[in-house]
Amino acid sequence: MSEERIYWLAWAQIPGIGPILLQRMQAQFGSVAAAWTAPATALAEVEGFGRQTVEKVIKYRSSINPTQFYQQHLEKNPQFWTPADPEYPHLLLETASPAPVLYYRGQIDREENLGNRPLIGIVGTRKPTEYGKYWTRRLSYILGKQGFTIVSGMAAGIDTAAHQGCLEGGGRTIAVFGTPLDKIYPEQNRPLAGQICHQGVLLSEHPYGTKTLAGHFPQRNRIIAGISRAVLVMEAPNQSGSLITARLANEFGRDVYALPGRIDDANSQGCLRLLKNGAEAILSEDELLASLGAIPQLDAPQPPTLEKPDFSGESFLAPKLEPKKLVAEPEKSVTPLPDLEPELKQVLEATPPNPIPFDLIVEETGLPSGNVSSALLHLELLGLVSQLPGMRYQRCI
């Protein structure tokens, strides 16, 4: 047990201290353990530490005994990693916001962390078409057979199909939860979670007993993108959280692939937009395997329980379009803004139309950085906020 491991856990208990500030403190003081005993004047010199943040740190530090808290925490959460642990995912450490604490259950494979078994993220909508589910399970099955580990978010729809397809092929899969590991969501995936525990790993940045919040689900997308070498988006409408995963993967320097679909299908709009913006198209199993660095098999294995739907029927064809006269369309009415939860409203009000750094939003709201990050992802999904390079945000309305 290293001293750093104890203090990563201790710092994670202080509201407003997120992964970005923790990395800056580590760089400033040489270790998070040394930062724990730093005086207020020294903390104030760390970029992003405002007066309120320093006062909050001093207050919470005085009430936490790191070693004692660590021992108590182990009683309910015996399995977790911090950036001080050699088992912590190396690729995630390369990102701007690695989770300070990462809880796990299941079968650990050192080859994954060493990069000898590449991790491939597969994400998409919770309400896929038969086309989307078929290709998700088929590609997950084949990739698992070829030695890739499939990473997804355990949600209904594409995520579930990705985990199932990989397991059917005897491969390893990693499920990144938006809930703590003692709360399986959705409930119908409880048997699937049990399978993954024997054939992969469950991951979460939330300790047992954490209250489930809607903002935690988009927040976990950065972990899916961060631990993956490449991300495949199978089906995604324009407002899908999968597009955030793809954007994060692109920022992290990961390869992004998208499954082409019909232009008249709402579930394909996000994928088509990704392809327009430079994502690689998934055109065949062999081409995908070659692109990911595997040697394609002459006869790709077929998922034994998976029958290909008939994509030639009317439901998969574009409707016949009648010619229309070129007339001016009436102006569309402006959609009223949705009612926002108080915390979302607070973060939106703290985000001006001009770009502002993430840390200033945290300081302005006085909320924990994790809550602000979740709120910003939620607001981004609603089209109310956009993120710019350098962890800067601006309001879109």
From TrEMBL:
<comment type="similarity">
    <text>Belongs to the DprA/Smf family.</text>
</comment>
<dbReference type="InterPro" id="IPR036388">
    <property type="entry name" value="WH-like_DNA-bd_sf"/>
</dbReference>
<dbReference type="InterPro" id="IPR041614">
    <property type="entry name" value="DprA_WH"/>
</dbReference>
<protein>
    <submittedName>
        <fullName>DNA-protecting protein DprA</fullName>
    </submittedName>
</protein>
<dbReference type="GO" id="GO:0009294">
    <property type="term" value="P:DNA-mediated transformation"/>
</dbReference>
<feature type="domain" description="Smf/DprA SLOG">
    <location>
        <begin position="80"/>
        <end position="291"/>
    </location>
</feature>
<dbReference type="InterPro" id="IPR003488">
    <property type="entry name" value="DprA"/>
</dbReference>
<feature type="domain" description="DprA winged helix">
    <location>
        <begin position="334"/>
        <end position="391"/>
    </location>
</feature>
<dbReference type="InterPro" id="IPR057666">
    <property type="entry name" value="DrpA_SLOG"/>
</dbReference>
<dbReference type="InterPro" id="IPR010994">
    <property type="entry name" value="RuvA_2-like"/>
</dbReference>
<dbReference type="Pfam" id="PF17782">
    <property type="entry name" value="WHD_DprA"/>
</dbReference>
<dbReference type="Pfam" id="PF02481">
    <property type="entry name" value="DNA_processg_A"/>
</dbReference>
